Amino acid sequence: MTIPQDRPRVPRFGVNYTPSDGWFHHWLDFDLDAVRADLDSVAALGLDHLRVFPIWPLFQPNRTLIRPRAVEQLVQLADAAAERGLDIAVDGLQGHLSSFDFLPSWTATWHRRNLFTDPEVLDGQAAYLRTLAAALVDRPNFIGMTVGNEINQFSGEAHPDPDPITPGQAEAWLHRMLAACEEGAPGRLHLHAEYDAAWYEDDHPFTPAHCTRIGAATAVHSWVFNGTAQRHGPTAVATGQHAAYLIELSKAWAHDPGRPVWLQEVGAPAPHIPAEGAARFARTTVAAALDCPDLWGVTWWCSHDVDRSLADFPELEYSLGLLTNGREVKPAGAAIAELVAEVRAGWSPPPVRSTALVLDLPDQAPKRSLCAPGGAYFEAFMRLAADGVRPTAVLAGHSEDAEHLAARGITELVTVDTIS
Predict the structure, then answer these.
(1) pLDDT for 5
(2) Which secondary-structure segment (H or E) carries 269?
(3) Could you tell me which residues are beta bridge partners of residue 90?
(4) Quick check: 104 and 56 in contact, CB under 8 A?
(5) Are residues 297 and 399 in the same domain?
(6) Angle at 36 between CA 331 and CA 104, to 5 degrees
(7) pLDDT, tens only, 95-138
(8) Organism's domain of life (predicted)?
């Protein structure tokens, strides 16, 4: 869709593409006709982009072998998307998807070495990201690369076989990987994406500062099964506002007051969001995100349900699609399609959020659990939202910086201890 030049840019609306035939294992038996049918069903919802997931060990089974045929199939997918008016963003290091880890054998067992610090692993990762980006650089519908999907989970203590690193090593790794993406496709929207441990977990090596100061945009992944829905319920303000909260929380650390924020993953996980409430949750969540200034776009997780013939997924993973495994539109898909049409018919950017809740954390934020569901800061923010306030977040270190506050349009400061 072409937007008239006198109209503000409408946020992007897309979907994380989960192939209906074989899930991400479809790369093993790539069927372009099946992909085209999937993309037809996505385009029919009025969406404008896909987030696409090559599986790292299938594309780079040896450190010095990036399979040309696999890269060619990725380009074929991009071209099929373009034929249907869909742009694509590509995640590189998969990495981790829907509870499964996909790591090449040259990083594991007898070849076990740290994913973030080993020099040879870094060389291989950089070559892979650069190759994928370069393969797509001449495609007008290529948005850019995301380094990997929630790859920070490999660095955390919760992982069964973690790759421990310091925040400084995480930062160096991010810069190296993003530089490789830029070398392959200069000037595109290259970024990185972490799951919410970066925002909520004390001492996690990937920090909010990394998320908001490295890369071309900030990515947030909003999942209310993290304790939000369990604590507050499926229809509570906190549940519907969780994605908007992460968007606004990210702005506390950003140096650029207008830095774009991409709601790159958000979904309606059952039973935390009952199936009969998925459409309502979708509308509420996306509407709340659209009320956040500087939103780049919303990319729903996911396109199609996972075929129940596939084993061992957590139960909630099977039913997250906007479409069924048979490509039929589900109620959440219809709700998203209706909302997208409404927004495009009459979009006006939201006003600035002039009230900021002060976050008393040091810049590197080692202790972040107060921002998590149940934490004092999270609960205070949600009380403000329930009262009809449109809060944003500001670090205490910036709360007396007049230039910073003016650049963000903040005119009122509120502290956690003043909210009952």
Answers:
(1) 41
(2) none
(3) 52, 145
(4) yes
(5) no
(6) 95
(7) 899 999 999 999 999 999 999 999 999 999 999 999 999 999 99
(8) Bacteria
Below-50 pLDDT ranges, the chain: 1-6
Q: What is the CATH number of the domain that holds 274?
A: 3.20.20.80
Establish if 118 belongs to a structural domain.
yes
If asked whether residues 223 and 367 sit together in one domain, one would say: no
SS3 state at 265: strand
Nearest-angstrom CA–CA distance, 335 and 312? 29
Q: Is residue 6 part of a domain?
A: no
The pLDDT tens digits of the residues spanning 23-63 come to 999 999 999 999 999 999 999 999 999 999 999 999 999 99
Tokens 């459409």, located at residue = 279
Report CA torsion sign: 57, 319, 17, 244.
negative
Check if the beta carbon of residue 164 is closer than 8 Å to that of residue 201.
Answer: no
CA dihedral sign of residues 156, 213, 372, 194: negative
Are the C-beta atoms of 192 and 177 separated by less than 8 Å?
yes
Amino acid at 393: A
Distances (CA, A) of 410 to 82, 291, 353: 41, 16, 7
* Cβ atoms 240, 284 nearer than 8 A: yes
**pLDDT for res 363:** 73
Counted domains in the chain: 2
Angle at 314 between CA 95 and CA 300, to 5 degrees: 65
The answer as to whether 350 is a domain residue is no
Reference 348, options 1, 6, 10, 50; nearest CA is 10
Which residue, among 320, 274, 291, 256, has the nearest Cα to 388 in the 3D structure? 291
Contact 229, 264 (CB under 8 A): no
